Amino acid sequence: MTKKRVASISPSKKSSLTFSTTVGQNKVSTNLTNSLAPFRIFLGHGPVQSVSLAPSARRSAGQTQKEPAEFGPTSLCRTQPVFQRAAILLQVLILALFFAPAALARPVPASFADLAEKLSPTVVNIYTTQVIKTPPWQNELFENELFRRFFGFPQAPRRHPQELKRTSLGSGVILSPDGYIVTNNHVVEDADEISVKIANHDEYPAKIVGRDPKTDIALIKIDPKEPLPAAEFGDSDALRVGDWVIAIGNPFGFEHTVTAGIVSAKGRYLGSSTYENFIQTDASINPGNSGGPLFDMQGRMVGINTAIYSRSGGNVGLGFSIPANMVKTVVEQLKETGKVSRGWLGVMIQHVTPELADQFGLDHPMGALVGEVTPDSPAEKGGLKPGDVIIKFGDKTIEQMNMLPAIVAQTPVGTRVKIEVVRDGKRKQLTVTIGKLDEESGGAAGGRIKKRLGLTVQEITPDLAESMGLDIKKGLIVTDVEPDSAAAEAGLRRGDIILEVGRRPVKSVDEFTEAVRESRGALLLLVERDGHTRYVVIKRKQK
């Protein structure tokens, strides 16, 4: 029976030596002329002109050959001692062990064609239409009776309101054969009509099953004529920086465009949502890719593409995807109830700077520093205290503060979680039972007015004032401002200190909430920023 050769050394031109090894379908070859030199010197060999361990032509033709191999113009095996022949075989063994890891390492993909062919049918193109009503046209000048009589103009006809249709496009990925599709919330948020085109160019109307603006995820449903190919969820936590990924989507309307790149970073935070924990990739993502999948090399969906960072509006190698583990958690709830329930810990946290790390006994900046613990919250019941630095939540290490809100939000309500903190320079283990986040209150002090104003405030404690370098020891600090909210339009920022509401001093969350409730119309605030005070007017948005 013929055995498969897995390693060989064969002569090459100009008296060089070539080593080849095969593992599976991967073949690694290298020139060993220079590599053999130290081994020959160590073993006492002279120069080697050419070497061949392959069977001779006579043996392959069925003839008997007593010589095991030929070395150059004269047989080294016939003229040198036996121990030198053994030394040569030892060289081969050493070199095989030396180069084997290179063959076993994951190679650069020669082509993405097989993956693209397999996965493209799971991706859909989404077209939305929004009907916009324009106000009736009229010109105040021509409506003026004296003006018309003076110039002799007739009564100007009044035009009726008009309806304009605005269309947009995006991408989505099929999650089940019966037509459930995940996409971005911003793709379908204000749509009056949603159309989905699948890979065979059939189009279907779609309805929204549920939306979650906080994570920018939406679940829609179509009724296909036959079962559809569905994507498989992967483990986004297992992704490593540098792993290959491919994106498929509908950029600028170019259907089923496939691009490839690597995972550039994990845990990215762009500042538009509390629960951001993006995967950064240099796979080309452009407008229209929103809602499309990011796949790993095993063909599993590891993310949903949602944003790009660009000054020109086009791809510059900075694309961001929602991790698949977060997508899976949200989608399951949207499918079951049409809304999302999030876990709640009940702490106000902040970044750990190098200066804070030194003060709180950390080797380097990491974790989430607890500035305040909400009374009667899961955190308080579990023993968390202001000044604790949360460095581990369950089995996940908290490298930076932004990671914690997303991880807590994904944790099912009622789950008992072990939390590791650094307290007074020492590590301490605590156990907390996760509660349910009240979206109306934001699960935090002062959050009851967040939905009305887009603003969350927190009472300033002595520990918080010291950690943030604040001169003021009491009052309220703005901890969150929602984009496009009334507070954001007024120019409020995180870190602003609120001194008065409606010319009434406020020093607690209850006082602030009461002052907001009693005020009518626009809200006047006295705010301190960078040591200077200024008045800010918040115009409440109509419900």
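Next protein, fold it too.
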Amino acid sequence: MALLLLSAALLSAALRIGAAPQPMTTPGALRRIPPGDPQVVSILYRFFDWGNDWQKLNPEYGPVGAVHFHLWEDWNPTPDVYAWWVIDRQLYRERSLRVTLPDGSEIPKPVVVQIFPYISSASGWQNAVFYDATPQWVYDLIDAQNPGDPRPVVNGRKVGYKLTGCNTVAVLPMYDNPIWQEAYFDAVRALGARYNDDPQISSVVINTGLDGETQLIKDLRCNWQQLLDIQVSYDMRAHFLEYVYRTMDVYREAFPDKAIFINNAPGGSAMRLATSEYAASLEPPVGLKHSGMWVDLNSHHGYGNFVGLWDMVNTYSMTLPIWLESAYGFGSSELKYWSLIAGLHYHPDAMNLHPEYFPMIEPKVLRWVGEHLGRTLEDTPSVWTVLRDAEFPLQVWDSGAASGKMGDWTFWLYRRDLPGGQAPRVWREELPAAAQEHIYSRQTRRTDQAEGQRYMIFEIDAGYPYVGQPSVSATPDGVSYIVRVILLNHGQDTLSLQYRNDAGELVSQRIHKGPHLGPVDSWVEHQFALRDAYFANNLTAEGGDFRISCNNDGDEYVHLVQVSGVWGEPPPLPPLPDTLLAAPRMIRLIPLHGVLQAVLEVENANPGQPIAWSASADRDWISLDQTSGTIPAEVMVTYIDADLAEGLHSGTITLTSSDLPEQNVQVTVEVLVIDAGLWLPMVTGR
């Protein structure tokens, strides 16, 4: 189907076709996996992992579980005979290993088991696309009952179906055959009878189609989807859906005490919808697994009658267990980082990652991701948002549409586009050259001072237990917050975190950018401790809990904002180094307009630590109402009429500190002298 790219002018009309499911907000008492249902061990898991003791090898990763893959043919060699040693020998390598969870408890290293009947490729499998891992005895049984229609042979092996095209062949299991189905279901039942009570197996993934996903075949090197309809049967898709439903039933019966997941994405639009609804109807429900966790996708969201790749995960993220899988092992650390952020947006219970993720992602990021898996609003270590926007535009056709993920990645903290808070998206190329190679620089957002958009405004989900509570400054058993901001340390201007206290007064905590924060023209992290914040969606008349202000002295670029609430006093933060600061760094006076004075604020980057300061001006027409003292201080800068010639004049105020002899700060003062006789009001006519 041809896709029509809509212009921005048609965007709103296109959305009226129908909206993709919107994020669901969890009521405070609702847990993602209800008590009594099979639980997931909510940590990171590693592909192709057999017997690695990550707690000893790389404890900095945090807890890491294992994903074990097995082909059906490898452990079911003949009817009703199961070579359990194939599975047990890998489990045995894990038996003595332990992992320490974020809460400090230690458990056996958890394992996820997956059984594949059909995969994209196999070792030694040449001159054919895909690999049918059905045990050969299954096709022998089918042939015995249908001698006139024997199964085709490819590379010396019987396969369910053989497709030809593009100068190659593809193979497909015989999903529509009742003998094939019952043989597979018997294997699943036997698997459940042996491992349902195994405490080391954390969960089981329901593998149905190619690579375990709910899709019959992929267009790899040829148009196999179309050729399937022609060379096998158009009805094959309906048979496959019936088989998927039955497979979910059999797995649920075989593993009543395990968290199990249907691997139904990517898959097709109708398949994603049907299997998700069916998974939710079972008791206990079956979780959803998404095998396409990536930075963004061109059909991330769907509209109208098209179900996007993530719409079902979005719809059920608060009511079903969710398991996410990285889409690729290749790619840069930047792509891997952003894929993790994209996955966390959907509040997953667990993730499994390609091995390349672990050495390429900073350990502190891996631990942070792991700490946010399987969390509810009641127990999450933080709420956060990463500022960005869709990487793929809206595409529309007659009955539906698709787009990338619109808006920010969020984790119960939302940026709101309120008046004065429209924050445009910024691409890498618009950032300083020194910052462009950083993993955060893929894209971001900024304030837009020139257009009057001085703020980024944020609102915490109302179910967060610290919201609406009095602050610790008002009562000893009140709340406090740590607000963590990752910002671009560009320029020497200031920014402020602003919020309301218990009395409804606007409070502002200001910081100066510069070398004391970290590398200049790169991303740095700053944390604010809030003892007096009362978050109740009360920042402005339109709402919001707090905002970042550019202070009208230069735009701010922000990657991440994170809020952690605590009862009582906030934990101590590492102090910034004592640094002499001044704001503003440029003062302009215009006597003819009555602008004769300005306030210069002298501060220490390490707030609350007083240091001595001195100031001097290099022009007689610059007057300072005080020239020394202890920081913090406010200095009134005044223009003294010195009969200056018409034009722009410049001078400098130099600030020093005897406590910091190696530091000084220079503030530019400009005065614009205009001949009053030449300054005339505008005349608009008679």
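About the second fold: Residues 1-31, 678-686 have pLDDT under 50 and may be disordered.
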